[in-house]
Amino acid sequence: MKKINEIYDCVYDTEIKDIKINSKEVKEGDIFVCTKGVNADRHDFIDDAVKNGASFLIVKKDGDYKVPYIKVDDPNKELPILAKKFYDYPDDKIKLIGITGTDGKTTTATIIRDLLGYNDCGYIGTNGIEGKSFSDKAANTTPECHLIYKYLSMFLKDGLKYASIETSSEAFYRKRLDSFSFDVGILTNVTGDHLNIHRTFENYIESKKMLFEQLKPSGVAILNIDDKYYDYFKNINRTIMTYGKDKNADLRITNIKEKLNGTNITFTFKNEKYIVESPLLGEFNVYNLMASILCLSCFGIDIKEIISRIKNIKVPKGRCEVLNFDTDYNVVLDYAHTVNGLTSILDYLNKIKQNRIITITGSAGGREREKRKDMGKVVLEKSDLVIFTMDDPRNEDPKDIIDEMIDTNKGNYEIIIDRELAINHALDSAQKGDIILVAGKGRDSYMAIGSQYIPYCDYDVITNYFSKK
Q1: What is the dotted CATH code of the domain comprising 2-84?
Q2: pLDDT tens sequence across 303-344
Q3: Among residues 219, 268, 280, 382, which one has the fewest Cβ atoms lying within 10 Å of its Cβ?
Q4: pTM for the whole structure
């Protein structure tokens, strides 16, 4: 809590409890910042904010607002300045680790948190916000800047030294991260996503490059040298460390042995050979782990100490998560919703399968339609049976989305629009040795239909199925 005249040079001594940009979330004593969003100008919601208890406003235009206000040229640019002051510059007191990439952000960010330890590192990303003494849900992969400052402040109160943050291309595009400087930036991979926002692949790449342009002068860029777009990122005026199978990688992967319950990995680093056993599944997670090992090395942690901590890694919820319900077949829950993500998980499952792979999947509405045909092609080619279903259709007809995914020359698919029914049907028809892959939503807690977010979770559907059994 601060007074306005502790933040701005003004006569007002109004006490502020919190910062809000959504009038519906305003509570007594909050300051309401009238930013302009994609579809809304918050000036239009001032009356609602005041009615809900806002005691101060940051605005762009004068008016009879019934509560004190300060006028600024651009509330959007003012928001991080205000938040930084209100929360006592928390980003200057904690090590910031940013992870970007089409796939693997959540897993890499959580691996880093696990390796650094819950007593030292907080997490901000798709799976929510996790400090040592608190957790919270996240509306976006990367929250609005004032919320990041708030969470960093809470991390510091928890005694944390690091923050592992998923930094999405959309967050950079929306300028949510403009005011932050990072100690370490990690690139997992680039295959293309969110082109409904970025319009072109070049714009998408440029948004991801912003993470490395916002590294501190002493910051380190950790890059996947095997990624086909590596050359787009390597020409930055910062220290670069690389990982991958390429002979020139600083951390070079030399052997991978995949199993159903883990992965054996051999790699070299600084002319030394190391063999580790990871609890994570699939070659794609080997890359995520190697990036995380390099990250810890940037903070002066000895490689042998890092390796000793690998046993502490927990499989991220909804990311290649094998669910144990004591069946003679396996159920795998995964967030894969891109061509690369589906290819990676299905390639791994095909290496270890004993019988069939049954994949339940769909594609989100209101997102890039261009990838739907390729997503359908991948799942049909790499699965024995595909059940196409809804996945956040938003304002599109889910049947129309599915029609764009289907190759009618293939016969190994069924269509069940209702996602719960689709999952139950797959489980009903499972045979010994099958792998049931539920792909696309991970542990998301909603289904986006029209303009509404209906409570829904794949994990809950699967759990309920077995509880009835």
Answers
A1: 3.40.1390.10
A2: 999 999 999 999 888 999 999 999 999 999 999 999 989 999
A3: 268
A4: 0.87
